[in-house]
Amino acid sequence: MSIDYVVKSAEKIKNMEVRGAGRIAKFCAKVLMEYAMEIKKNFDEEMKKAAEILLNTRPTAVSLYNSIYYVMDYSGESDEEKRESLVKRAKEFIEWVDTAQKEIGRIGSRRIKSGSTILTHCNSASALSVIKEAYRKGKDIEVFATESRPRYQGHLTAKELSAEGIPVTLIVDSAVRYFIREIDYVIVGADAITVNGSLVNKIGTSQIALIAKEARVPFMVAAETYKFSPKTLLGESIVIEERDPAEVAPEELRSLVKIRNPAFDITPRHYIDLIITEIGAIPPEMAYLVIKERLGYRLLGEDELKLSVHHYD
Q: Which domain of life is it from (predicted)?
């Protein structure tokens, strides 16, 4: 297995064959583990190269960053000891992803009352775990799912929930305010949670949060603790990725006008009622403690963690 395997895996993240914060994090851990198992020499150098390639795929995906830094915080004297340590950490992280979503579903489902209508945005495995678990517990619920343009991830959400037997209504993103009076809860996922409790998520989330606030509809976020951003504790901002204009408009229009296509936006913490994590349901103000206590080891300097990030063209 050559570095081409890592490059091809990175392309799958860039072009959204692999999408969703949790799925990306798990995929990165798996790629690093599989590559590590094939390296014959120069273990540290090869792993640094692989990690840097993956780190530069989706700048907003904090889960990707935390996944890579968790796996790369390996130890050992010989290459074989280092390999064993890295593989162990990768398996630990993958287990973290799997168990966290189940716990979020269990904890979050308790917040949902039978007879409720829930609005969700994009296609978050964590948010859907809350909805599915509530339904499996016998609660009578229905869901409104936004299309989540321009990639239409909401279509995936609608299909997934419908397959569970949950009644789903698919709406265009701009219809949220029209339907908000029919909604009892908004539940969304997260690509990142900052130190001040703000949410970085699929573009359109902040507008939905504002509408929910105006209508006094509880706005809840389902987020594993590996989506909390330690970099923001050190003063760094999260980079908002802008994607290809071709996702938005055909060539004849792109040749005439400038097109902007941000993939994410930021929802201030005062629009968020609750963040549901695998360690419990917390107010956004507790984000600082989660980052410090759960992710504090990653506040080490990047040089101490075996790699420094730079761009590969």
A: Archaea
Q: What does CATH list as the number for 3-101+296-305?
A: 1.20.120.420
Pair of tokens at residue 118: 């829930």
Give the C-alpha separation, 81 to 189, whole Å.
37
- Over its length of 313 residues, how does the chain's per-residue pLDDT go in tens digits? 689 999 999 999 988 899 878 889 999 999 999 999 999 899 999 999 999 999 988 877 788 989 999 999 999 999 999 999 999 999 999 999 989 999 999 999 999 999 999 999 999 999 999 999 999 999 999 999 999 999 999 999 999 999 999 999 999 999 999 999 999 999 999 999 999 999 999 999 999 999 999 999 999 999 999 999 988 877 778 889 899 999 999 999 999 999 999 999 999 999 999 999 999 999 999 999 998 888 754 444 444 444 444 332 2
280 is in an annotated binding site: no
Q: Is 294 annotated as a binding residue?
A: no
- Is position 28 annotated as part of the catalytic site? no
Q: Considering the candidates 28, 173, 191, 273, report the single residue annotated as catalytic.
A: 191
Sign of CA dihedral 291, 297, 302, 307: negative
**Predicted model pTM:** 0.85
User: Does residue 191 carry a catalytic annotation?
Assistant: yes
Instruction: Report the C-alpha gap between 31 and 68 in whole angstroms.
Output: 10
Choose which CATH entry (3.40.50.10470, 2.60.40.1930, 3.40.50.300, 3.50.50.60) describes domain 103-294.
3.40.50.10470
